[in-house]
Design goal:
By secondary structure, the protein is an all-alpha fold. It is 83% helix and 0% strand.
Length: 382
């Protein structure tokens, strides 16, 4: 177990790489805000331009309507000559009243219509000027938006590189797509193979197939290892890490939680085998009953989680959150077992050394306890 990694997991002091990622994320979020503002400005000018065009259409319809009602031409060319002729020959005030008054009323109405048409035409002219100004502002806003978008894209590429470096440096230094924490040999299987005869003898005395149960535990550990490695691969491919809420911090936190859950399960599993080898029936059955209650012997959940990660077709963050929530109850229960196992660390370490394992059980327990303490303190702070 890499003790330095455990210390990194619980430290609150950010390393330089994480600080760089934080800085790039802030720059990216700021750039996104600027792009949004520029686009809104462009949209607003576009709306102004469209509204101005609608004003021109309304003025046009009003002009057409006024022209259709304009009786000036009709009054002058048709009604006017007739009225003048009658007035000249008859000199009758009655005829002047009958013919002249409507003529002058139509003339006044036509003049009013003409004035209204002129106002609408002037309004149209001013609106066309406003449209041209709006179009110029739109062009400016569009150029600014393009420049800011290019800057944003550049920041996203830079952030993605920093992000990849951060996750690789934190979880996969040799870039072999295996979480550094999981690169130790399969110690659980080594213990099973070395002490198989004793387990068979234990089975006969108890009348129960414990070897099969141990194999099922190993299957769960194996699937969990695969899921962790797959999670890291999917995180490195993900495009969901560029948000104020969903970013490198939240993904790193979820991955660390999963590593912690794996370590807790591994420690309990190793303790269970060691207890059987040492004839510590009390510890063995305490762990066994806890495993049975938590359905640890069933690997359906791990299979489903791994399948989801392999054929992910939804938001990665949501998938990891779901896995994290389901693991929480198991981890909380198993965490209690570490207190019982701490009294047997010496014999457990002896059994690990017998299979040439480089795993330090004391370091494993220390990492589990320290991370749990870190989580509790963090909740108090929040």
């Amino acid at each position: 177990m890499n003790e330095e990694f455990n210390m990194f997991v619980i430290t609150r002091t950010k390393n330089n790489l994480e600080m760089e990622v934080d800085k790039k994320l802030k720059e990216l979020l700021t750039a996104r805000e600027e792009v949004t503002k520029a686009y809104m400005k462009y949209t607003n000018w576009g709306n102004i331009s469209r509204e101005s065009e609608w004003d021109i259409e309304r003025d046009g319809r009003a002009i057409e309507e006024l022209k259709s009602k304009d009786s000036l031409t009709w009054a002058i060319f048709w009604f006017g000559p007739l009225a003048l002729t009658w007035i000249i020959f008859t000199k009758s005030m009655v005829i002047i009243g009958i013919i002249g008054i409507p003529f002058f009323m139509q003339l006044i109405k036509a003049l009013k219509n003409s004035s209204a048409i002129s106002k609408h035409e002037e309004s149209t002219r001013q609106t066309r000027i406003a449209i041209k100004n709006s179009e110029k502002e739109m062009e400016k806003a569009l150029l600014i938006h393009k420049d800011l978008t290019a800057a944003q894209n550049s920041l996203e590429e830079d952030y993605a590189k920093k992000l990849r470096s951060f996750f690789l440096d934190t979880f996969d230094k040799n870039e072999n797509q295996v979480v550094d924490e999981l690169e130790t040999p399969d110690v659980f299987l080594l213990l099973l193979e070395k002490h198989q005869e004793k387990m068979i003898a234990f089975e006969k005395s108890e009348g129960k197939n414990y070897v099969q149960l141990f194999i099922q535990v190993h299957e769960r550990l194996s699937l969990k290892r695969q899921a962790l490695n797959r999670t890291l691969i999917e995180i490195l491919k993900s495009k969901d890490l560029m948000d104020e809420e969903v970013n490198h911090k939240s993904f790193a936190g979820l991955l660390r939680n999963e590593i912690h859950a794996y370590n807790v399960l591994l420690a309990s599993s190793i303790s269970m085998i060691s207890a059987l080898i040492s004839d510590n029936r009390i510890l063995f059955y305490k762990i066994y009953q806890t495993f049975d209650k938590l359905n640890v012997f069933n690997s359906n959940f791990e299979n489903e989680s791994l399948q989801e990660l392999r054929s992910i077709n939804q938001n990665l963050h949501k998938v990891l959150n779901r896995i994290d929530e389901l693991n929480y109850s198991i981890t909380s229960e198993l965490q209690v077992l570490t207190e019982a196992t701490e009294r047997s660390t010496e014999s457990i370490q002896t059994h690990l050394e017998q299979v040439n394992s480089t795993l330090s059980f004391n370091t494993l327990l220390a990492g589990i306890n320290t991370y749990q303490l870190y989580k509790l303190n963090r909740k108090k702070i929040v």
